[in-house]
Amino acid sequence: MTEDTAVDTRPTVDTRPTKIMYVAEATAHGGRDGYVTSQDGQIELKVAMPPELGGHGNGTNPEQLFAAGYSSCFHNSLILVGNREGYDLTGSTVAAKVGIGPNRHRGYGLAVALSVSLPVLDADVAARLVDAAHEVCPYSNATRGNIDVTILLG
After folding, report:
1. What is the tens place of the pLDDT at every residue in 108-137?
2. How far apart are CA 59 and CA 50, in angstroms?
3. What are the phi and psi torsion angles at 51 (to 5°)?
4. Is the pLDDT of residue 8 over 90?
5. Residues linked to residue 28 through DSSP beta bridges, in sequence order
6. Chain centroid to CA 90: how far?
7. Are 89 and 79 in contact (CB under 8 A)?
8. Do the bridges between strand 2-4 and strand 44-47 make them parallel or antiparallel, or are there none, so unpaired?
């Protein structure tokens, strides 16, 4: 199990891209009680505040979208590092839980828990691949030091 905490003791590594290879574009209309669209038309989703935050919940929400993006990106990074080392990760999964709540600065913050399943690998190899994926994944690099990310290997 690996975990990012508010205090990251690792040396600062510049994880900014050296070349932009793709740009995603989306537009929000109406905030948390509206809809979102992507420039290419692939996304047209109703957005609604979840009941836990006082809404009716009749739509997706930014936390679900972030969970979907992070889990798919982390899983792809895991497959990439696994393939580089000769492992077939067929049957592996990554699930993300994204929590939201008030922070100490009158705003809101996020926390992420990633649950990784690598049923065909022994625990040591799986942990090594998860650690490597966490260094490769753009979502991990973007959130490192900004929000708590817990990775559970099971």
Report:
1. 999 999 999 999 899 999 999 999 999 999
2. 8
3. -55, -35
4. no
5. 36
6. 20
7. yes
8. unpaired
